[in-house]
Amino acid sequence: MDAKNLVGTTLDGRYDVTRVIGAGGMGAVYEAQHVGTGRRVAIKVISTGDLTKDAQLVGRFQREAKAAGAIDTQHICGVLDTGTDEANGFPYMVMEYMVGEDVQQLLRRAAPVSPDLALRVVAQTCLGLQKAHDSGVVHRDIKPANLFLSRSDGGNVIVKVLDFGIAKVKMETASEAGDAGLTRTGTMLGSPLYMSPEQARGMKTIDHRADVWSLGVVLYEMLCGRTPFHHIDALGELIIAICSEPPRPVQDFAPWLAPEVAAIVHKALKTSASERYQTANEMFEAVKALLPNGTAIDEGMLISLSETQKNEVARRLTLPPPGENRMSLPPPQLMSQPPPALATEAGTTGGIAAPTERRPEVKPKNNATLLVAGAAIGIAIAAGVAFKFVATGSDAGTASAATSVPTETSQPGTAPAPTATATDAPSPTVSPAPQERVVRLVIFPETAEVMVDGEASTAKDGVVEIKGSLGSEHKVKLTVGKQTIEEPVVIGEGGALPAKLELDVKTGRAIKASTLGTATPTAGTAKPVNQNPAIEHKFE
Fold it and tell me: What is the dihedral of CA 373, 379, 381, 382, to 10 degrees?
């Protein structure tokens, strides 16, 4: 039976299925209404052939419902019901219906985002994770696609943790949780780029600190637009790097970042779990100390970091060199008097506490044997890294050069710069040419034909790039079959205005959103038929 055939049916006699939200190899996610109450819900259904008879898969599916349903917090997507349809034998899970976008979509159109927004997202995620950990549940797959920015009434945005499909419930054995299938199938439980070192090693003693690592990777990506090991393509090499190499300093890619924020990132990404934040709540307190105006998120904050902020260069965080027996950096301390806040692009007064003093450099213990061994290991690693980056043409040198700040002192042997004299003719004043910018506009449906200023444009993953000067207006035309809309899009300081343009194929009208996923209950992923990606991607 095809998954789409469920539209128009009543699942298990209780849920009228109205449309497909997303579909994949395992089944589909539907929008439905409860027959008795009329409540709109999202239902995940396993409906593909023999998969309904796969005991391990169905067990994992039921474990997701159990893990998420047992945790009472607004920061975890609520599971309302679960069961198996008697008519066709399809296991299903009923979840709250949400409007918004996930962090992966946010980064696709707006990375990097402001440190203020990134820290607020992490703070709210920590609250949800702490509730899960207190219930004995470790998520094990924290990544941008599993953090949903749900719009509530009044324009507030609530971060909700999604998809506990590979969660480890404390009372279960490793084999019951699916670890035994790792060796048998050759697949990995979790997303490699966000996987903690202990997960990469296949350890069976994984605990809640693995989620802290993964959340550190998400924070790293929000701040600089890439993950720590984004440059590695081969899975084997990626696993070795995660287990043995400290991540590149986040300030290499985000020189504007305050050292106090960088310290949080690198403490969360300690290779040894004992050196990380020991609980999600501990990480929350460290983040909260840098947010004097609170952790609430307004939909107007969901925009790119401004060019002005990108051009800033902050003081560097001192990190121990690779190869040393490094000590954990202490978390940033809350200041007695809150410093001036950084204004956000949305015009709010929220911001990050400004740095006030240099954090002391952590010194290794005074042990001769340790120093000699550390120096030898450091030289070996440095040589290997140097060879690797020369051989692969990495952007390491470019990034380092981009973050260096010239000094005013002349170098020895360099002639001093000529100075102006009274006889020098004044230079004519020339207005600088408007700087060309590239902004990203999310379009829906993704299959729509797109014209920008009369020229055909290609949408990649539901995103169209528009080039022009700041403030310039561009005509965007979407066509699906006989339905066509044409709307103006302005290049703003924080990105495209509006950020999303949707063609309602039923009415032929345009639906615009100043931030993605805020104008209509059907907002969400840019994929066809999927307007709630947070509950879809596991079926692909």
Answer: 150
Picking from 355, 389, 424, the residue at the C-terminal end of a domain is 355
- The Cα–Cα gap between 27 and 8 comes to 16
Write down the residue that tokens 């410093």 correspond to: 339
Query: Which residues are 452's β-sheet partners?
Result: 455, 476
> What DSSP character marks residue 470?
T
One-letter amino acid of 456? A
Domain of 65 in residue numbering reads as 3-96
Distance CA 498, CA 520 (A): 14
Per the structure, how many domains does the chain have? 3
141 is catalytic: yes
* Rounded to 5°, angle at Cα 438 from 436 and 440: 155
pLDDT tens string 410-448: 344 444 444 444 444 444 444 455 678 888 888 888 888
pLDDT tens for each residue of 357-402: 333 444 444 444 433 344 434 434 334 433 333 333 333 333 333 3
Strands across the sheet with 100-102, in order?
100-102, 147-151, 156-161, 297-298
Can you tell me the distance from the alpha carbon of 421 to that of 414, in angstroms, rounded to the nearest whole number?
21
Average pLDDT over residues 79-102: 87
Kindly report the backbone phi and psi dihedral angles of residue 404, in degrees, each rounded to the nearest multiple of 5, phi listed first: -75, 150
Distances (CA, A) of 47 to 67, 305, 396: 22, 42, 47
Per-residue burial over 437-455, b = 16 or more CB atoms within 10 Å of its CB, e = otherwise: bebbbbbbbbebebbbeee
pTM, entire model: 0.62
**Domain at 252, CATH number:** 1.10.510.10
Residue with structure tokens 């490699």?
Answer: 192
Q: Write down the catalytic residue from 141, 163, 179, 211.
A: 141
Q: Tell me the chain's radius of gyration from C-alpha atoms.
A: 26
Reduced DSSP (H G I as helix, E B as strand, rest coil) percent helix, strand, coil of the chain, to 5: 30, 20, 45
Pairing state between β 483-492 and 473-480: antiparallel
Cβ atoms within 10 Å of 284's Cβ, excluding its own: 20
